[in-house]
Amino acid sequence: MRIISQPRCGATSKTEITSARLSAISYRSQFEDGGGSKAEAEGRYASPRLLCVDSVCCERTLGFMGEKFPKKQKQPGLPHVTRRTFLGTTLVSGATLLAGGSSAIFGASSSTGTSANPDSMWKLGGDLPVNRLGFGAMRITGDGIWGWPADRANAIKVLKRAHELGVNLIDTADAYGPEVSELLIAEALHPYPKGLVIATKGGLTRPGPGQWVPNGRPEYLKQCVDKSLKRLRLDRIDLYQLHRIDPKVPVEDSLGALKEMQQAGKIRHVGLSEVSPEQIERARKILPIVSVQNQYNIGNRKWENTLVYCEKERLGFMPWSPVGGNRGLNSERGLEAAAKDHSATVYQLALAWLLHRSPVMLPIPGTSSVAHLEENMAAAALKLTPADWKTIDALAGRA
């Protein structure tokens, strides 16, 4: 795969705008990364078109960036762009900037995002503003979410690039590696930029690759919090999530331990993972809950009732496996035509669908590839009308 970078652009003579730069990513129908389980999990992008954004963004539909540009490539409402003008001149105009400029997607600053368009923001617990499209740091570890990655320098590069692209919500867990993901985050980003929220999880042990066993014992969870603080080099964890409710331990005991750690100033907010509305209600009798992280995507809506509950109660909903994980999306084939119509990949469309599905939705797509990270983040600029959303929703339902 290739990345074609556009130099930083200045304001045009016709429109006074913030300087911007674009990176256009050209994806071939067959990836050149040699395959492998992780590559297959991340490399399902085959659309010849792509909506591209960079750390300062504009909304722009670009044609296929092959060896040659067609002589004419024009879309309604957009001026004709030749290869020369794309590579050598400013491609930004006031008409193509998103409302509020790049801040509408990622925030005015890559470190705070506090001046972003409200539609692109969410306040965890009412006091932690985050850009709604975050980053999941599970896949920066080794295969099977076990051990160190084969290319540690690349993992560091991915984390740094995520921040450059405006990500200020990074989700991890002590079970990722185990411990490796948290250590890499600290290595890449500490001292942390202002406004960066790191959410981690505890209560799910890793006996071996691909194995996940709940452990909700209070004494164990307290140790988890202390060890995560040390690995992440933090004095307080902004969002600590109970990774799974342990059926062998009363949830009151597990969350009681987290409440003690919160009262001790080691945790700011508490969240849950893979829970029903009834379990959330039970948990909220013990301590405040600000977020829920359940599996959810356009092709898997098992936890729709939990999402509806979160909307009603104004809790952040962080869908894990937002583009289907290793297995991809069940509705992938049915969405291919719609993705082509929007000059996007199926996975960009799936992320855009999530962002439009609910204002409490906080997708955290993960990857170990900088190119795939950039493509995921470009989904934030993909605008869907209500009619678009309904059409895509119906196509996914029929797939």
Secondary-structure map with pairings?
Elements: E1 2-5, E2 23-26, H1 37-42, E3 50-51, E4 61-62, H2 83-88, E5 121-124, E6 128-131, E7 135-136, H3 152-164, E8 169-171, H4 180-189, E9 197-202, E10 204-205, E11 213-214, H5 218-232, E12 237-242, H6 251-263, E13 267-273, H7 277-284, E14 291-293, H8 304-313, E15 316-317, H9 332-341, H10 346-357, H11 370-378, H12 386-398
Parallel strand pairs: 7-8, 8-9, 9-12, 12-13, 13-14, 14-15
Antiparallel strand pairs: 1-2, 3-4, 5-6, 10-11
Helix pairs in contact: 3-4, 5-6, 9-10, 9-12
Describe this structure in words.
The protein has 399 residues and is an alpha/beta fold. The protein has one domain (115-398): TIM Barrel, CATH 3.20.20.100. The protein is built from twelve helices and 15 strands. The protein has a seven-stranded parallel beta sheet, with helices on one face. The model is unreliable at 1-118 (pLDDT under 50).
Please give the largest β-sheet.
7 strands, parallel
Overall residue-averaged pLDDT value: 77
Broad shape:
globular
Span between termini: 29 Å
CATH architecture: Alpha-Beta Barrel
Total count of strands: 15
How many helical stretches? 12
**Gyration radius over CA:** 21 Å
Q: Give the CATH topology.
A: TIM Barrel
Q: Class by helix and strand content?
A: alpha/beta
Q: What is the subunit organization of this protein? A: single chain
The low-confidence runs, each spanning 5 or more residues with pLDDT under 50, are: 1-118
- At the first level of CATH, the class is Alpha Beta
- Beta-strand residue fraction: 5-15%
Overall structural domain count: 1
